[in-house]
């Protein structure tokens, strides 16, 4: 511990020295944060060493790299000692509007860090009520309207990521609140809420999955939103949607029923839902779709289960009426699976 304390003081001294090179300063910022995450007691034993203030001071740097490093390290400090540094971070977000983008990045590290263990989560969960209003107030922050478009979008994206990852922590209470935001009168609020769903979808099963399944129709309804900020979120959803149109071999299994073997596809219902979503998108926002990409994924449905084939044929008929040129260009590829189905009397 004594060596860790010596290192922390050395890092602090390098940050306080005006002529420290940027490379050394960058190393000091990152190491200060990692030290707080791995050895949080270092900062508990020395009241004169205030790493959070050193990191916030680095936000005044002209170097974007240094400011980003300070933001990350501030988040790592809070991960290591939530009780001490999370209240400081929330206070800074509320009181420092010009630094909110960097501070929100720090909060994002806290929410999403895998290092937040169950013991730390016991402290973290009661403070969700503090964090949620901060994020939602920020999503409608009127000052955004005075900034460049890219700056507004970047800040909203950070807010959305925080919201989504926060819902993973406590889905029972927070996901309904997120769903309510999709009907907000403020389009920025609606856009942030829909973007947040992207960060709720993770590879491993979570407690939020079942709740998200029930709430997804409300989020998907926003493809009809009059505000383009919300409809543009379609680009976020399409890759995930298209990925679910493919047969996943790991979900196909054989079940023995006496002397017979029966193939069971556990992914069938999800694929059906994906193709139904595609059909809805075709009917509601054709102008937002890249037709060739859409048809590439639609084609797989012509070789799938009977129910999916029927739905794909409906989409194909609709596309032939709406986009005849694109359909003609792919006619050879479309005819082969159709011919096989006709010969077998499947459609």
UniProtKB/TrEMBL annotation:
The keyword Hydrolase does not apply. One of its GO terms (biological process) is SCF complex assembly. The keyword Cytoplasm does not apply. Residues 230-342 form the TATA-binding protein interacting (TIP20) domain. It comes from the Eukaryota. Keywords: Repeat, Ubl conjugation pathway. InterPro entries: ARM-like, ARM-type_fold, CAND1/CAND2, TATA-bd_TIP120. Belongs to the CAND family. PANTHER family: TIP120. This is TATA-binding protein interacting (TIP20) domain-containing protein. It comes from Anisakis simplex.
